[in-house]
Specification:
The complex is a heterodimer. By secondary structure, chain A is an alpha/beta fold. Chain A is built from seven helices and 13 strands. The termini of chain A are far apart. The chains are: A alpha/beta, B alpha/beta. Bound molecules: fe (ii) ion (FE2) (3 copies). One fe (ii) ion binds next to α2 of chain A.
Chain lengths: 248, 284
């Protein structure tokens, strides 16, 4: 399903059923005129559908960059396919990742650049800022902020499970937005370390990101984009983290 | 059998017995380590506070238990696939591989599972119960183990262990009951220096050659800081209490992390040092 989120930013995705409802596995595309940028490339399970949708959205344009939030299969499982179709694509990852071993040997290492959190780069005329991924499983994960549209791409962070009726709907199209329990169920299963995390230490770090960046939309890979009412959703996520800790 | 090395550089894999039937299959860079890890310490907060003059190396290990039924703990990464298979074949000869046991689904741990399965089609994937979306993570059809469940291999009994410190949702550690071999995946590992020929050494051999408790503690700290960025939000006392409880429960005679040199015995000396490293990592 291809949906326009805001401006020239689109989401493409598949939804897999699990014990808590459906889990989205999304790819984001910034069209960026003649210099499209992919954020992750989806699961190998959905190779055919994902590649068809990327191609139909790009309509003949060649993506110049793919930013990998991290290298797990649901995020990078189609990299081989992407590299096959666009062999000159440049890959951008976190500088904590070791591309030689964390990315399958399908592209020359010279096409992979590593960037540190906090750095701002110009990618095909677009200003992207790399952001410390506060909620991540792999250490070599990174979030990225698109200043032009105010979209913060958060990888596994801010993921949530959704009902069949919610599939493909943005938060503003769902009565009441994304609920705390949806964040809680996802974060508890994705991030087992949260049982150790003390909310009073964690919350200021999360708040600092939103104090620094004018985030208008949160775009997780495992949940449709969260459009608007960012403070409410950040507060619910913090509540979810606190509830996971309190249940220990 | 001594250490046998297959290939070189980015593809190099060594195999070395830890016990007569438990084999350490490990990749590290040796001479090439300086290309990859020269900034390992400079990325840290207060970089000057660490023993950062060293050119260190970082292994990626799997462990093969050869028995009536043979089991491989993790698989290494695709970049080292050909040499990993050579190492496994070297150890097993014409025996079969029966289980491919996955600690968590990152490429350096699970990335050669499909290749091993192609080579040994009867091998069964094993991973931890209670997760979500196994197929999405490439583990469709895996046999699932809850912590405390044991696979009987013949002479060895491998118990699935609830991990203390993890990144992924789907994660497990392991304890082999006959040898006291404890596998802790991404936790509690040191670094080593290729220039001092420390590649493929056991930790006690490194110590004989000058590796100190202070360096070890520093390495545990630095690696934990990288590996578990969430540690800064935890309570150090709670973490240390859990480490004590873990080693009280699992009588560890061999400590085998994925990314360090192997510790053989004397855990009473190492556990306090590892706890101190964790305490310092939390405070970084
Ligand atoms: Fe992930
Ligand atoms: Fe994910
Ligand atoms: Fe690891």
């Amino acid at each position: 399903m291809i949906r326009n989120i805001v401006g020239d930013v689109y989401q493409i995705g598949e939804y897999v059923e699990g014990s808590y409802g459906y889990e989205a596995v999304l790819v984001y595309v910034i069209m960026n005129e003649q210099h499209p940028i992919l954020i992750d490339c989806g699961s190998q399970l959905h190779r055919t559908g994902i590649m068809q949708e990327i191609n139909s959205l790009l309509a003949g344009r060649t993506p110049e960059y793919i930013f990998l939030t991290h290298s797990e299969l649901p995020h990078a499982g189609n990299l081989q396919q992407v590299a096959k179709q666009w062999p000159n694509i440049k890959v951008i990852v976190s500088n904590v990742m070791l591309p030689y071993i964390e990315i399958a040997p399908i592209l020359p290492l010279s096409q992979i650049t590593s960037e540190a959190a906090g750095k701002t780069i110009n990618v095909g005329g677009r200003t992207l800022k790399f952001v410390f991924a506060t909620l991540k499983d792999q250490p070599g994960s990174q979030w990225v902020f698109d200043a032009q549209t105010g979209v913060l791409f958060t990888g596994d962070g801010f993921g949530y499970y959704q009902s069949a009726e919610q599939i493909g709907k943005f938060s503003d199209e769902v009565e009441g937005g994304i609920r705390e329990i949806q964040f809680r169920d996802y974060h508890r299963t994705a991030f087992h370390f949260l049982r150790w995390v003390l909310p009073e230490k964690f919350n200021p770090d999360l708040d600092a990101i939103f104090a620094q960046l004018p985030v208008k939309i949160i775009a997780p890979i495992h949940g449709d984009a969260i459009r608007g009412d960012i403070p409410t959703h950040v507060a619910r996520l913090k509540q979810a983290v606190a509830n996971i800790r309190n249940a220990v | 059998m001594n250490t046998i090395v297959f290939g070189e550089g980015l593809e190099r894999v060594a195999v070395r017995p830890i016990t007569p039937d438990i084999f350490w299959i490990t990749h590290c860079l040796g001479d090439k380590a300086q290309d990859i890890y020269k900034n390992y310490f400079s990325m840290l907060p207060n970089a000057a506070d660490y023993s950062g003059h060293r050119i260190v190396d970082y292994p990626f290990s799997a462990f093969l238990i050869r028995d009536e039924k043979s089991l491989m703990i993790d698989t290494g990464a695709p970049r080292q696939q050909a040499n990993t298979l050579k190492a496994v074949e070297y150890v097993l000869g014409d025996k079969s591989l029966d289980y491919i046991w996955i600690s968590h689904v990152e490429l350096p741990h699970a990335g050669n599972a499909p290749a091993l399965k192609r080579r040994y089609p009867q091998a069964q994937y094993m991973t931890v119960r209670g997760g979500e979306q196994y197929a999405l993570h490439g583990l469709e059809g895996a046999q699932l183990m809850a912590p405390g469940e044991v696979i009987d291999l013949g002479k060895h009994q491998l118990e699935s262990v609830e991990p203390l410190f993890v990144d992924h949702g789907l994660s497990q550690w392991a304890y082999e009951r006959t040898t006291g071999f404890t596998f802790t995946a991404d936790w509690a590992h040191n670094l080593h220096e290729p220039a001092k020929n420390e590649c493929f050494m056991f930790l006690d051999e490194m110590e004989t050659a000058g590796y100190s408790a202070a360096l070890h503690c520093d390495d545990v700290k630095v690696n934990a800081w990288y590996q578990f960025p969430w540690l800064k939000w935890t309570d150090p006392d709670e973490v240390c209490t859990a480490i004590d409880a873990f080693f009280a429960r699992y009588d560890t005679k061999i400590l085998a992390p994925s990314h360090g040199n192997i510790i053989r015995g004397d855990m009473a000396r190492y556990v306090p040092l590892i706890k101190e490293g964790m305490r310092q990592a939390i405070a970084m």
